[in-house]
Amino acid sequence: MPEPVIEVRGLRKSYGDLEAVRGVDLEVGPGEIVAVLGPNGAGKTTVVEILEGYRERTAGEVSVLGMDPAQATQAWRSRIGVVLQECMIEPLLTVEEAVTLYAGYYPAPRGVEATVELVGLTGQRAQRAGKLSGGQQRRLDVALALVGDPELLFLDEPTTGFDPAARRAAWGLIGSLRALGKTVLLTTHYMDEAQALADRVVIVQAGRVVAEGAPGELGGADRFRSRISFGVPADDLPPALAARVSRTGDRLELSTSAPVPDLAELCGWALGAGVDLADLRVTRPSLEDVYLELTSTSGDTG
Amino acid sequence: MSTLGLVWHQFRYDQKTFWRQPESVFFTVALPLIFLFLFVSIFGNEPVRIGAGTEVKGSTYYVPGIVTLAIVSATVLNLAISLTFARERGLLKRVRSTPLPPWVFLAGRIGTASGVTLLLVTAVVGLGRLVYGVTVPTTTLPALVLAVLVGTASGCALGFALSSIIPSEGAAPAITNAVILPLYFFSGVFIPNDDIPAPMQRIGDVFPVKHVFEALLTAFDPSTTGSGIAGADLAVVAAWGVAGALVAVRRFRWAPRKR
Question: What is the pTM assigned to this prediction?
Answer without folding.
Answer: 0.84
